[in-house]
Amino acid sequence: MSQEIFLMDSNSFIAPYKTFYSFDFAPGYWSQLENGIKSGRIQILDLVKSEITSGDDDLKNWMCGLPFSAIDRRQPSILAEYANVLQHIQSNPCYKPAALTEWSKANIADPWLIATAKVYGYTIITFEEGKKITPGSPSKNAKIPDVADHFGVKTEKLYYLMRELGFKLN
């Protein structure tokens, strides 16, 4: 197995919790995820942690019970890359101004995930799908895989992480 480190998008916690890996149905999944966090192979950005812990459910309780430190997005190197990500959205003719407006909001983790992954060489785990964007048909919605690709940041789906970390669902 590689020593790849994974940075989780909020949807990579929320979707499994709400759909196929609820705590009552798949506690082993959450135990293995917790082991990945404890070992440092899975990292969590402060904005992602805030989004998860803003709810009032088992996912919040699980996240609050984990012994880890979320990555602080206010590190100078991350701030510099964040500015580069927003500049890319602003200057890219494939995006409408609405894309920059959305990604500039204080609670939107997407540009921060890309900036953090760029700084540390992490792989982003997300359920987002890239879009076929062109200057002739600019999009009002930037997607993590598209923007991450521009910055040389790898994105993968949750099952990739599970395979790389050797998850077993018994």
Question: In terms of topology, how is this protein built?
Answer:
Layout: E1 6-8, H1 11-18, H2 27-39, E2 42-43, H3 46-53, H4 58-64, H5 76-91, H6 97-103, H7 110-120, E3 123-125, H8 144-150, E4 155-156, H9 158-164
Parallel strand pairs: 1-2, 1-3, 3-4
Helix pairs in contact: 5-7
Outline the structure in words.
It is a single chain. With 170 residues, the protein is mainly α. 49% of the residues lie in helices and 6% in strands. The protein is built from 9 helices and 4 strands, in the order βααβαααααβαβα. It has a 4-stranded parallel sheet. α8 links the parallel β3 and β4 (155-156). α5 packs across α7. The longest helix has 16 residues, at 76-91. It is globular, with a radius of gyration of 16 Å. 31% of the residues are buried. The model has no long low-confidence stretch (mean pLDDT 95).
Basic shape: globular
Poorly predicted sequence stretches spanning 5 or more consecutive residues: none
Given the helix and strand composition, which structural class is it?
mainly alpha
Helix and strand pattern: EHHEHHHHHEHEH
Task: Offer a quick outline of the entry.
The protein has 170 residues and is mainly α. The protein contains 9 helices and 4 strands.
